[in-house]
Design a protein that fits this description.
Elements (H helix, E strand, L loop, with lengths): L1 H15 L17 H15 L2 H23 L3 H33 L10 H28 L16 H30 L1 H16 L1
Helix pairs in contact: 1-3, 1-5, 1-6, 2-7, 3-4, 4-5, 5-6
Length: about 210
């Protein structure tokens, strides 16, 4: 019972790690008003810069390590390998965030609307690029972990198996449903724990509409 509960928590955390914490940033790309961007950046970064890595990556990484050990201990080798791949994806994401995104964020934090570099848009886009890569590794990690639910390493001879085609259709539908629900959990997490950035994005869109 404890292992099943732990697996459920790990699943939720692996899904949440697919989030960057920054929400939808497409409306902030390109040549936008610098004051608007810095206002959004200043408010969101203080919530996410440190807290985001702890909640979105450090805690899921710890749970994934324990879950991988249990899979290998229970002789579920394929599930263990997939969990390790999910773990590596998260670690790579943390490396990208710390090594590339955070230094740029520290540079942006020192900007003021009246005094920004001439190539500030290029710097901003580079930061979004690394944040995007960080989010992509989280999605890949979640993808690897979802697959563990569809790997059967023991056969129940008492139950008559479905035909291969029907079994494939069933697993495909369940896989996409689980994956989408996980991404929904990540979005819900952003809305619940970082509501300030949602409000700022709404205000940004309203400002852009008025322009």
């Amino acid at each position: 019972m404890f292992k099943k509960t732990f697996l459920f928590i790990t699943t939720i955390l692996a899904a949440v790690s697919a989030s960057t914490g920054y929400g939808a940033t497409d409306s902030l790309k390109g040549n936008i008003n610098v004051a608007t961007f810095l206002d959004w950046f200043g408010n969101t970064e203080k919530y996410i810069h440190v807290k985001g890595l702890i909640v979105l990556d450090l805690i899921p990484i710890i749970f994934l390590i324990v879950q991988a050990v249990w899979f290998f201990k229970d002789r579920k080798k394929i599930k263990g390998i997939l969990t390790v791949l999910a773990l590596l994806a998260n670690i790579i994401g943390v490396f990208i965030a710390i090594q590339y995104a955070h230094p740029i964020a520290s540079q942006i934090a020192g900007w003021i609307p009246d005094n920004v570099p001439s190539d500030w848009i290029s710097i901003k886009e580079d930061w979004f690029k690394y944040i995007g890569l960080y989010g992509l590794t989280g999605i890949l990690g979640w993808l690897c972990f979802v697959i563990t639910f569809f790997v059967s390493e023991t056969r129940n001879t008492e139950i008559k198996p479905l035909p291969r085609f029907l079994n494939f259709i069933k697993n495909t539908l369940l896989f996409f449903l689980t994956f989408i629900l996980g991404m929904g959990a990540a979005s819900l997490y952003e809305y619940c724990f970082y509501p300030i950035q949602m409000k700022l994005l709404v205000l940004l869109l309203l400002k852009c509409t008025d322009l």
